[in-house]
Design goal:
It is a single chain. The chain is mostly helical. Helix content is 65%, strand content 6%. The protein contains 22 helices and five strands. Strands 1-2-3-5-4 form a five-stranded mixed beta sheet, with helices on one face. Helix 3 (44-63) runs antiparallel to helix 6 (130-146), helix 5 (95-116) packs parallel to helix 7 and helix 19 runs parallel beside helix 20. It is elongated.
Length: 619
């Protein structure tokens, strides 16, 4: 049932007590289903692409309202970025048309930028945004990994040519008409960095595509790290967005910004992988924050920081606090959170202005305490939810195991014990009459052999059901009971080895439910087995199975002497005596009634009433 937790759907009792859902539940249910369905379809390239596009949107929206140029002019970059990202998503299924469409989109977006005079900012490549860069990388990757060599070369060449033309045109080196203007608006160093960066991205993408094309096996999908990151997409996405935003502030060498950026990437990786090793993650995080805090003293003023800590490091630290509180013990989590908080506090104090009593510092301190409290509360909530889920799963598994053991015990007792009882009865009878009439021993041995063969067959079928080769509890009688109960009852009486003459009366409806027929056959089988084992001096047994109104009435009686209770009290401990228990469990599962005890006419009487229209779970 979609939308419910994986440990099982709600019980029938719960659905009866709460037949309708509240408005909040009706609204939240489709949202949960949508998130659960699409979180399984999210892949790492899609997460990176989404983060790059969101980073572009944040930069463009902020630039569109600054004092440089007309208000809102920068927003003209958004359509090209969005369409190119859509082409990257499309390339997963159709690399050839998606690659060509992406190249055309990049050129059309460049023409729009040149005509309207929209300023295009530089990311990794000159005048090419983060979203366009990541989308182009994915277009090349899927073209190389999925197309034939000729098609891959064609699409890759087209994308590379479109990227070069777009970069030079947006930078003002090439006129839209195709005329080369020269190094007038761009320094030679920027072009060299763009060429080296673009070539490195192209080579890495082509190598990755060729490797994926060569392997042709789904090992990537079974990789535990990839599967783990896909489950953590809700954290990976905002961290990637912040890293893209911070990357836009990085200054060219000889600035130390690139080293600080590496520390930010390290803290993000530690936060994502923190649930695997929480204690070590806190140590790595503290070390990286201290290193970046020292480097911040020597970086340029444009780098985005908050008292010496980057925004991505703040989010990574918050996520790490939640992870530690969730996965570690209370005492250990307390020490780890204290160490992490002290480290962040030291770095913050070093980069705080001298006026420690200023309102800005007090506000920052209060905000930090509030964020820490929120993270601890979220971690405690998730920890409690995990404990509750674990208890529910453990209870469900225990109930399932108990039900399976009880079902197997009933099948073992009803099927195998029936045949073994026949063997014991025939052996006792042969031993008693062997001295008087040795010829009877031959017939008894034949019956014992047949009963032993039947017992072995039933045991093999039961073993197959336990190994999963057949439905649980499937046996010769249970499989046929769903089609013709009357014939199975006659066969049971005719070939029974209980040694007591039996009269059978059957009157069944035509639409007898299979589970009712199977239980009825088991009740008769176990009752006749008990007659053969415990009914002393019994001369006959009477079996009646007939429909009475909306119920199936089952009656088994014998004329022996002695009650089953006295017989059971005198048994050895090796004799389990679970026959009546198993019969009562079968009847209770079908919401019926069972009565077993001495008969007023003498002997022992077993009666059961089973509803013909049983209630099933889930209906």
């Amino acid at each position: 049932m979609a939308g419910w937790p994986r440990w099982g759907k709600p019980s029938l009792l719960y659905r009866r007590v709460v037949p309708t859902r509240s408005l909040r539940e009706r609204v939240a249910q489709p949202v949960r289903e949508f998130v659960a369905r699409h979180s399984q379809q999210v892949n790492l390239p899609g997460i990176v692409l989404l983060a790059a596009v969101l980073g572009d949107l944040a930069i463009i929206v902020r630039s569109s309202v600054d004092e440089f140029g007309p208000v809102g002019l920068d927003l003209l970059l958004i359509p090209g970025i969005v369409v190119l990202a859509a082409c990257a998503v499309w390339s997963y299924r159709s690399p050839l048309p998606a690659g060509l469409t992406g190249a055309g989109t990049l050129l059309m977006s460049t023409a729009l930028i040149v005509v309207t005079g929209t300023p295009a900012y530089t990311a990794l490549l000159e005048k090419i945004t983060f979203g366009e860069t990541v989308a182009g990388v994915q277009l090349v990757y899927y073209a190389v990994s999925r197309l034939r060599p000729i098609g891959a070369v064609f699409v890759t060449g087209t994308l590379v040519g479109a990227t070069v033309v777009a970069s030079l045109t947006r930078a003002g080196l090439v006129h839209p008409a195709g005329l080369f203007i020269g190094l007038r608006n761009v320094e030679l160093t920027d072009l060299a960095v763009t060429a080296v960066t673009g070539l490195a991205l192209l080579l890495l993408t082509v190598v990755a595509g060729i490797y994926h094309r060569r392997t042709r096996r789904p090992s990537r999908e079974r990789n535990e790290l990839v599967a783990f990151l896909r489950r953590r997409w809700a954290l990976v996405t905002p961290l990637s967005v912040l890293l893209f935003l911070e990357l836009s502030y990085v200054q060219s060498p000889p600035s130390l910004d690139i080293l600080v950026m590496l520390c930010c990437v390290g803290t993000a990786v530690v936060a994502v992988l923190g649930s695997k090793f929480p204690s070590q993650a806190v140590a790595y995080y503290c070390a990286l924050v201290l290193v970046s805090g020292v480097l911040f003293r020597y970086t340029g003023p444009l780098y985005s920081t908050f008292y010496g800590i980057a925004l991505s490091q703040i989010l990574s630290g918050m996520a790490l606090v939640v992870t530690v509180v969730r996965h570690e013990s209370t005492r250990r989590a307390t020490w780890l959170v204290v160490v992490q908080s002290v480290t962040v506090g030291v770095v913050t104090l070093v980069h705080t202005p001298l006026a420690y009593d200023s309102p800005t510092v007090r506000t920052a301190f209060g905000t930090a305490l509030l964020a820490l409290g929120i993270c601890v509360a979220i971690g405690m909530f998730l920890k409690a939810r995990d404990s509750e889920r674990a208890r529910m799963v453990e209870t469900a598994v225990g109930d399932a195991q108990t039900a399976e053991r009880m079902a197997l015990a009933r099948e073992l007792h009803d099927v195998v014990a029936h045949h073994v009882t026949g063997i014991v009865v025939q052996a006792q009878a042969a031993r008693m009459v062997a001295e008087q009439n040795p010829a009877v021993v031959t017939d008894a041995l034949a019956q014992i052999e047949r009963a032993g063969t039947d017992a072995m067959t039933a045991m093999r079928r039961l073993v197959r059901s336990m190994r999963g080769d057949a439905p649980a509890g499937a046996s010769e009688f249970s499989e046929q009971a769903t089609t013709d109960l009357a014939a199975d009852l006659r066969r049971l009486v005719d070939t029974g080895n209980h040694g007591i003459p039996t009269e059978l009366t059957v009157d069944l409806p035509g639409d007898l439910p299979p589970e009712v027929a199977r239980s009825a056959l088991r009740l008769v089988q176990e009752s006749l087995t008990n007659v053969g084992k415990h009914a002393k001096d019994a001369s006959r047994a009477i079996v009646g199975v007939c429909a009475v109104g909306e119920q199936l009435h089952i009656r088994i009686a014998d004329d022996g002497r002695g009650s089953a209770e006295k017989t059971r009290a005198s048994r050895t401990s090796d004799d389990s005596g679970y026959g009546l228990v198993g019969m009562r469990e079968r009847v209770d599962l079908l919401h019926g009634r069972l009565r077993a005890g001495p008969s007023p006419e003498g002997g022992w009487l077993v009666e059961a009433w089973i509803p013909l229209r049983t209630e099933r779970n889930g209906e």
